[in-house]
Amino acid sequence: MSARFEPVTGRYLHLDIGGRAHRLYVEEAGQGIPLVCLHTAGSDTRQWRGLLNDPRILERFRVIAFDMPWHGKSSPPTGWQDETYRLTSQAYADLVLTVCEALELDRPVAIGCSIGGRIVLQLALDHPDRFRALIGLQSGAHVDPYYDLEWLNRPDAHGGETCAAIVSGLVSPTAPDEGRWETLWHYMQGGPGVFKGDLYFYKIDGDIRKEIERIDTTACPLYLLSGEYDYSCTPDETLDVARRVKGAQVTIMPGLGHFPMSEDPQGFITHLLPVLNRIAGESG
Amino acid sequence: MDDPIDRLMHAANAHAGLVHRGRRLDTTFLLDSGNASALVQIRAGRVEAVRKGPFVMPSWDFALRASREEWAQFWLPVPPPGHHDLMAMIKRRALRLEGNVTPFMTHLFYFKALLASVRPGVSLSAIAPLPNDPEPAR
Questions:
Q1: Residue B138's pLDDT band (boundaries 50, 70, 90)?
Q2: In CATH, which of 3.40.50.1820, 3.30.1540.10, 3.30.1330.20, 3.40.50.2000 is domain A9-282?
Q3: What is the pLDDT of residues B94-111, one digit of tens each?
Q4: pTM of this prediction?
Q5: How many CB atoms lie within 10 A of CB A183?
Q6: Strand runs (DSSP E) across A233-278, as ranges?
Q7: Do residue A231 and residue B82 have CB atoms under 8 angstroms apart?
Q8: Which of A22, A178, B76, B137 counts the highest number of beta carbons within 10 A?
Q9: Pairs of residues, one from chain A and one from chain B, whose beta carbons lie less than 8 Å apart
Q10: Which residues of A touch B129 (CB under 8 A)?
Q11: Could you report the per-residue pLDDT of B28-76, keeping only the tens digit for each?
């Protein structure tokens, strides 16, 4: 195979988030409507490599993905060694809005998966005016804990092995091996306690079951896509959100799991393109 | 009638990568399927013995308990969603993990692959990273 560069560029953005200086890793490709991509808990921007390389998307969308602080190539803030990382609903929403503002994005589309799929519901609730459309992958209003989260960060257990093994069954058994193991490699590389800290938002702080009926999809369209093999946020849980949010558009994706854009990028994009076409059409 | 448990020892020990993944593991666990149970003894990643019940005063580190129907679904060549993975079964409260869970949680990839190893036509390399060129155990 001859050597080639992808159309993706990666740069470091310096900005204040929540009053602290951060160095954030940001990737982008394409031009047009800004499409901000939010990765899952304990992972990073590499999950979005399929979208960042798809010419059908890049001709109309400026695809932007960033590693959350503590994730991927975005370091934790100075002094991290003296604190416990714990993501809250407020901090996560502020992070997304701050990055969009720093990049001077004009009413972007945001697409998020898992914790990202949860925060787009929160953004739909509180900041519909800031977005052109919101897309939630594996979006649910709440997930009950089903294992002791302590296992994700114990000095006597290999964190990378444990985090990846906990989530490995969330990848569809029919996913291509390449996508499966790329996705799980990201989990093996997460910093100690980071996945666990994200799940504080996912399983405890970010419960919005009582609020989602207030989402107004006439203010900002909401699209939900969920893979059928996901047992963390099940298709039924996504369908429940769709039932309760008037006007939400839902797609259940057969043969996909909890990480659709990363475990099987091509399979996922066939489900995403009609949604993007509609958003691009409505944007004139 | 075919009992997948009868194939467990051979299926596991035939896979050098799986044995290697368990090279730091010594444990005995109870596999319970409602009206039947088995004690699986593992030493340095090898399944040393599989003893089938009923037992008087069985001794084990941890137990995996699910109904016979749940295990049958898990062992189908292509298990349906929610039946395809041990954590998926735990999430649905269809599988109960009891006892000292440390050996199980520190070797989660090992146990996912071990239990799936008797699934007809399974490719264990889709379930756990299992190098086919492991370094010799030390």
A1: low
A2: 3.40.50.1820
A3: 999 999 999 999 999 999
A4: 0.96
A5: 26
A6: 249-253
A7: yes
A8: A22
A9: 58
A10: 181, 184
A11: 999 999 989 999 999 999 999 999 999 999 999 999 999 999 999 999 9
